# Entry
Amino acid sequence: MNKREKTMEELHKVLIVDDEKLVRDGLVRSVDWRAYGLYCAGSCADGLSGLDAVHTLSPDLVICDIRMPKMTGLEMMQRLRKEGNDVEVIFLTAYSDFTYARDALRLLAADYLLKPFEDEEFDEALRKVIRRRNWKIPERERCKEPILPETGTQSAIDPSLRDPVTKNVYCLRAMQVIKNHYGEKSLSVSTVADALGISDGYLSRVFRAGTGITPAAYITMVRMRNAKNLLRMHTYKVYEVADLCGYTDITYFSSTFKKVVGMSPTKFQNEES
# Structure
């Protein structure tokens, strides 16, 4: 047995069952499963496929939507419980219905989360399962936060670089929202998350995992990239460029521009003449 096979055997298997592809893919790709001593063994788009997958994969944990085509999550778990399967389950739903919560408890669910849920809620739900089963959690590796560059050297947030390459649907949609609304003063991680119908924390986690930078850093990148283009035109004054790029404070705009580009917006405009 090689080292990789041994490592996989020591992890507990997770199955994702959700008919929303964005949610399904987001959970599969963005959660650091190994940090919890878990790994995602598969995903399904409906309860019937989920039932077959449980029989095939024998997961230790099922994270399951309730309302799905062909067979609901509750119906799927009812079938499994009748078979004597005691797999752990965390139910997800966009509907705040007491009946759902009651049925989930009857099926011995570890937790019941309303979409969109916060990172902290999902983290606690996973830890609740881990505590119930007495599974071990590996020590987490410390992650360093990205630092804004002080000069124009190449880095993740340098606006001269291309957009981060990603296939994650949430990331791509968030990037498009930011490009369309970078000039709005109200643009923030929260407004982008609202536009996608997910929580701030979930967007931050998915975006960081998919692109390597935070959504806030990407907002800055897009604004600075457009600020450079506007300054090159020599049509607008610096304070007008700041306003067009969503900044209400010219001092903050100038300071941010200098950190990212390596020179003040005035000097940049003069050198681009």
